[in-house]
Amino acid sequence: MKGKVPLLLFLVFISAGFLSAQTYSIVIKGGHVIDPKNNINEVMDIAVKDGKIALLAKNIDPKEGIQVVDAKGMYVTPGLIDIHVHVFYGTNMDQQYMNGPNSIPPDGFTFRQGVTTVVDAGCAGWRTFPEFKKQTIDASQTRVLAFLNIVGEGMRGGPFEQNQKDMDPKVTAEFALKNSKDIVGIKLAHYSGRDWNPVLLAEEAGKLCNMPFMVDLGGARPALSLDTLFMQIFRPGDIFTHCYGQLGASRESIVDVTTGKVRSFVWDAQKKGVIFDVAAGGISFTYSQAIPAVKSGLYPDAISTDLHIGSMNGATKDMLTTMNKFLAIGMDLQSVIKASTWKPAQIIKREELGHLSVGSEADIAILNMRSGKFGFFDYTGTRLETDKKLECEMTLREGRIVYDLNGIATPVVVSRRRYP
């Protein structure tokens, strides 16, 4: 046995030397790369090293990679960015989305969808954000950013979200600036009164910290005017979320349901720079709005899910289902990828994300386009059939494979330590 030890050590040293001699940690071969920022839409190889994109080229020698991923026939895109989710999960059953049961833990729902970055849409306010950072942001493999709620308590539910006394623009803006590594904007969520004051307070906070303001206009009856919101209150870069929702008397819609046409002021808002965010949610996406809007050329700026326990098992389900709905409507693949990667990164002013530039962090999604017979429905029950849909084959986060559906990466051989 003693005579075998030097040989074993020799083989281990040789193996270690071989691995260290290779140039890249991962080489992705033969995938169709779609990178909207860099106008790439062709078959290319990608090499990853030290968690970064090291090289894009027509042909990278697979021997240069410690691991090789066979992406032939698949699409390789930047890691997807979902800018509207609810992930401040907790066990306080008397609360809702703020440290309560309506939110979900991000890592269980992101990587299997090609999502590497999510933005929590206002679950926490300045008073509750420290706990959110500790238990979710800092504890997740997924990159978690946040819109800070104008309500200090955040989305705690009930009277807490109607309390205008807890809507302090100065304190909210100061807190957002102090925590700008994690906070990307201001959110007004579930205010239900017919009152512009909460909108104005949240807008003021956005101005003070120079961050975008996202609004869910709430349940006012009769509805507050979208024309007023878009043209008199919003700044360029502010975000109208649930943009294809149709909630009857509680909210105006962007498409006039009697004529099937996009309202004229909506086109003016688009020219102004108002951002349209999908946030499909439980009851916030209808084909009656999305189809005429997209057919008219009003594409979403950001495709997002509004993921929470009320949407993940309903019509919305997940990020790729939402993207697939827009493919089924007739939006081209490149535009769908852009609205799920580079454009959201621009909206939240994180332009280091959402692309595959050399030197950028290697957040990568590898997607397969399946053929078959598929159906995608909205919450009203309206259903579209299609013969194709995107599915996630692999996700890389910071250059590390975090999801591999069918084992398309060559395994790394790890030496087993032998004990006498």
Summary keywords:
420 residues, Urease, subunit C, domain 1, TIM Barrel, 10 helices, 17 strands, 24% helix, disordered N terminus
Describe, in plain words, how this protein is organized in 3D.
The protein has 420 residues and is of the alpha/beta class. The protein folds into two domains: 4-77 and 361-368 and 388-404, Urease, subunit C, domain 1; 80-347, Metal-dependent hydrolases (TIM Barrel). Helix content is 24%, strand content 27%. It has ten helices and 17 strands. It has helices spanning 4-21, 129-137, 169-178, 197-209, 226-233, 264-272, 287-296, 319-329, 333-338, 342-347; strands spanning 24-35, 40-49, 52-57, 65-70, 75-78, 80-85, 115-125, 143-149, 183-188, 213-215, 239-240, 255-256, 261-262, 275-276, 364-377, 383-397, 400-404. Strands 1, 2, 3, 4, 5, 15, 16 and 17 form an eight-stranded mixed beta sheet that branches. A seven-stranded parallel beta sheet has the order 6-7-8-9-10-11-14. A two-stranded antiparallel sheet has the order 12-13. α4 links the parallel β9 (183-188) and β10 (213-215). α3 (169-178) packs parallel to α4 and α5 runs parallel beside α6. The longest helix has 18 residues, at 4-21. The radius of gyration is 23 Å and the shape is globular. Mean pLDDT is 92; it is low at 1-5, 7-19 and 415-420.
Task: Give a summary of the structure in a few sentences.
By secondary structure, the chain is an alpha/beta fold. Helix content is 24%, strand content 27%.
